[in-house]
Amino acid sequence: MKRRAIVHRLPMAGPDDASALVAEIEAGRIDPAGLRAVLGKTEGNGCVNDFTRGYAVQSLRLALAPYLSDDVLGALPMVMSGGTEGGLSPHWIVLEEGEGPDGPPALAFAASLTASLPPQAIGRMAQVQAVRDATRDAMRKAGITYAADVHFVQIKCPLLTSERIAAAGGDVATTDTLKSMGLSRGASALGVALALGEVAPEQLSDAVIGQDWSLWSARASCSAGVELTACEVVVMGQSADWAGDLRIGHAVMRDAIDAGSVADLLDLVEPGFRAQLTPPSQTQVLAVLAKTEASPDGMIRGARHVMLEDSDLSATRHARGFTGGLLAGLTGFTELFVSGGAEHQGPSGGGPCAMIYKTS
Amino acid sequence: MKRRAIVHRLPMAGPDDASALVAEIEAGRIDPAGLRAVLGKTEGNGCVNDFTRGYAVQSLRLALAPYLSDDVLGALPMVMSGGTEGGLSPHWIVLEEGEGPDGPPALAFAASLTASLPPQAIGRMAQVQAVRDATRDAMRKAGITYAADVHFVQIKCPLLTSERIAAAGGDVATTDTLKSMGLSRGASALGVALALGEVAPEQLSDAVIGQDWSLWSARASCSAGVELTACEVVVMGQSADWAGDLRIGHAVMRDAIDAGSVADLLDLVEPGFRAQLTPPSQTQVLAVLAKTEASPDGMIRGARHVMLEDSDLSATRHARGFTGGLLAGLTGFTELFVSGGAEHQGPSGGGPCAMIYKTS
Amino acid sequence: MKRRAIVHRLPMAGPDDASALVAEIEAGRIDPAGLRAVLGKTEGNGCVNDFTRGYAVQSLRLALAPYLSDDVLGALPMVMSGGTEGGLSPHWIVLEEGEGPDGPPALAFAASLTASLPPQAIGRMAQVQAVRDATRDAMRKAGITYAADVHFVQIKCPLLTSERIAAAGGDVATTDTLKSMGLSRGASALGVALALGEVAPEQLSDAVIGQDWSLWSARASCSAGVELTACEVVVMGQSADWAGDLRIGHAVMRDAIDAGSVADLLDLVEPGFRAQLTPPSQTQVLAVLAKTEASPDGMIRGARHVMLEDSDLSATRHARGFTGGLLAGLTGFTELFVSGGAEHQGPSGGGPCAMIYKTS
Amino acid sequence: MKRRAIVHRLPMAGPDDASALVAEIEAGRIDPAGLRAVLGKTEGNGCVNDFTRGYAVQSLRLALAPYLSDDVLGALPMVMSGGTEGGLSPHWIVLEEGEGPDGPPALAFAASLTASLPPQAIGRMAQVQAVRDATRDAMRKAGITYAADVHFVQIKCPLLTSERIAAAGGDVATTDTLKSMGLSRGASALGVALALGEVAPEQLSDAVIGQDWSLWSARASCSAGVELTACEVVVMGQSADWAGDLRIGHAVMRDAIDAGSVADLLDLVEPGFRAQLTPPSQTQVLAVLAKTEASPDGMIRGARHVMLEDSDLSATRHARGFTGGLLAGLTGFTELFVSGGAEHQGPSGGGPCAMIYKTS
């Protein structure tokens, strides 16, 4: 018998709605003991005062409390990412581990948690190193030996609030709370890049975080939220310790409209598909996880965008809706885990995109 | 010699920037006397208090004043549509008429203006009828005999403000200023549908406007703005009176993620293209004009969207960014004239999309 | 021994923070058994997708669960109002009932809950009648015999969402979710007005709700939220059944800048105070509860306001921040329960304002 | 004969509406040759992409073009400040200079313009020094000898956009466009403080700008906008070179709810007034000019505010609406020139407030 990954994508009627997950458990289609992580795409603004993330976590805990001990529940990673702009649809992605007969290497995952980070560490090398170690720890737990077998690392990391800034006596990477989200995401991404050998230790310092966009990970996806002070790291990849019919692949969007790279990724389920996956192929796709950002130079292929100048609507909200439209067009559905703010996650203006899929 | 259409797509650094148009005139690449309409995609919120539309019109008038008499300038249709969410790029689309040698039927266009509408008419049958007549008048001017040869009708129409509502003594279709934009767009669209035979007169009444979504035009694109009180109607199609290398086609998106219909349209320049037009094909596309909306039932292919529940961000802004992403993915560029609020413009949740292109 | 009201105003670090309440309980300063209602001013947008209200309720229930049986907890009214724009500060107002020695009539309160309202009832006479009955029931429970002794009726009422509209098959007062909040507040207010004899039954019908602003209650304060389907009614007034050092008074702001009426109310704690209560008087004020709205005619004392034209920022958010500034200037503190959307609550453009205070 | 100040406060129906000014000119109540500066409070978001400021300037130029030569018009300071949140009302404040009989010292004003600032200078000492010099130059022109006679210095200054940042090759004080508004306002304020002797030269350096809030001017009011690259400085004070019935005074709000300091200022027209100026006193007040900001420590008198955590609504919009409410309550009208972002303008969390008034 081998380890076996089972992935469920479930709808969410609001941040307080985990009823679809409970229904699956009650119907015997999910074994609570096998839960390894729950990701949620919630409908808040995805920025500093997005309380849908914390509300979803609290609601999820309440829903799972009848099935899991306090200790197990407390250790279960719950990675909420706010923002379903445009036609994106709030949903849960549930990662379950079971066991099954032998077979070729298959989807593998595991999680690790850093220690709580003091405000002084956020957006700085201390965070980079903590995430590097947690990434390696999660790989070990997932039975993934080689960095090349890691396809996505989903991280939930903290941000700075007015209170935390005051608590640190001002010794913080930034006093701008919204900006702290970007620095925290960036530091986390560089931690992944370090763990996976995508950047070398000597290239990194506090000064490059949020500055030198030539340094990036092709597989990091980081989301900051006010509701935690440590970094939760969920590594997804493939491993010979696991078998079953699930696989994962990833692509890197070179810029915000790089449909070609995404199409190459979707070819894994429908080679040579045209414009949009056909319905049968759509059912093979269990999860799409992508990062997006407004290109810092204010341009997309030579044409000006306004995302960074818009003081009514944050750039991450702009970017999620836009990339959501592109991905929905190609995949044919809207339950897409598109997360905003791709600092050091893919090249400047672009971002990584992963797909969990069933072999046909 | 026949009439000949020339279309220019030019960048805009802000709503006050018509410098690219002036540069083309100064370089002799645009003859001001040939100008028939100028469309502008500006970077405001596209809603009630979007002053970028009026600012762009005023700036455009100032820029063209040295080249055109007051009368000619006053009659030149200037159709501004606010909102470049996501990666969309503010730009001008300039419709110029020249003449040239004979050839097969080609792109044809002309404009017509309704009388000023009193507040009482907005969103009601009086507006429907005014737009119907203006559409027919513009067809005549463009030399388009058959409704089937019309591919896009771009309309700029008024909305209700607190002042206008008060002036009407409350006898208005709605007292909600944002909602009045939707009713005005809807009434305009039904006027086009009536002119083109897409709906029958007996199907229409005040009661169906903004209510019965089974009634729609496949070729109307309506944009409401605070800066005018009449409806400006620009008809685009094909006519044997015109020749040259430009053509127009249109598609109807069935829902917000109907990439297939758009791909069929783009086939006109690159048959069987994959995921995104190649760069040579991109240069053949002179303009993409599309309408989009949040589906009123709150769903896209069975999955919930949040656009109508988001009180921080209007549904039209959500929709433009999302559809902008889908179209940018397929076309490979971001100067796309995506306009929000597709009431009676295409099926519920979908919208029309037109392309002006060069024959290769 | 008589009934005795005790009121606590406590800070809230976020919608999930009921720690100040727990601390008071643990310190023996609040007896959980005496809790009669908890009001919360939370920091969401106060509109349709304000999840801070539901999150606060869920967090409050979790915090109180160790102290109260499920039944008691389930029946405890929790009235959350979203929106702390400007310098307003999120806070709890806890209404506790104890007992004490005899004395003159004093602050009295009690709550009542309507049955769950179907979507069809919201914003219509069915809601008006349900709230009328609940108001009378709460008066009875509070021992308030005469309508004149009622000074404030705080109501939490439901709104329409896309799902609920669909469930009603379209038989709803409006299909605009944001607008449904206004209609629900308005219907609730007219229910109070009916119960208190401020309007006569024959003046009311579906048609006047949200239309005839000459009908209003001077003591209703209604807040709509997505997290409930019934109306929670908390009546506050004075009664000879109660004694102690707490009193309540109310004023009606005639328009958005009617500082004079508020000053007259504040005179109850510091007669003839100038511009701002002095610090000792500030400590006498336990709670300020006010309603506010953008005047529907777009004017304040003859000058135009832009609240109804602003498509980036809802009018209720504008109004709360503005009235919050006026009240904070007069009182000298920012924990003010200012709630937006004063339809039928006070005259058009104005709103009621109540103060709970200690006799000096 | 002496110089004599005439001040007009005029309504604005939109950023394109200078009709009230034209009407005054046509009626002979304003002599265009006497215009010295025009201030405008426009209804945009007051942030980076607020085009109402530029639109108002362009509209004002068009309106005045028939009356003034290009040179005179080009040199006339037009200081637009965006943002009329809450019940604030868009309006013009027109500063005109005439002459009249001798009398005691009276309101005096004059303007000066710095050279165009390169992006590298914005938010740095080069801007501080340019503003210091322009302030002194404007004092000279206004006939104000002593710093103590200066009561308000209204400045319009540039900001950084993505284009300008790129043009500077990244050598800028910040790459965050919204943040650049704050740094530009702060540097301008310190320039005024330097000119008026409120801070000493040795206290200033690039490092203190936007950091050391103990350094501030009690009379600077700075507004940043995308539509200019130099700083326009309008000094207002009192001078024996001027006579007439107009005076100016100023106060400093110590925090966001310091109604007492404002009341002391309003005493100049109605000593000992209560809560709100009476209507006759209101007519004596020709202009109220104030600055406001969200206190950087996230607190107002010990209670938390949420302005800095709100990613949907910028802190300057919050602050303007809130302070607008406080000032409207005290003055009794809403045409108040409240400008957001008070960096180095008054103490942290507070701001200066000036009043131009008629002697009774």
TrEMBL record, chains A, B, C, D:
UniProt keyword annotations, A-Z: Hydrolase, Magnesium, Metal-binding
Gene3D superfamilies for this protein: Cyanuric acid hydrolase/Barbituras, RU C, Cyanuric acid hydrolase/Barbiturase, RU A, Cyanuric acid hydrolase/Barbiturase, RU B
Matches recorded under Pfam families: Amido_AtzD_TrzD
EC nos: 3.5.2.15
Enzyme class: hydrolase
NCBIfam families, alphabetized: amido_AtzD_TrzD (TIGR02714)
Domain topic, free-text comment: The monomer structure is formed from three repeating units (RUs) that share the same structure as one another. The monomer, the active site and substrate all possess threefold rotational symmetry, to the extent that the active site possesses three potential Ser-Lys catalytic dyads. It is possible that any or all of the three active-site serines may act as nucleophile (albeit only one can do so per catalytic cycle).
Designated name of the protein: Cyanuric acid amidohydrolase
Species assigned in the record: Pseudooceanicola atlanticus
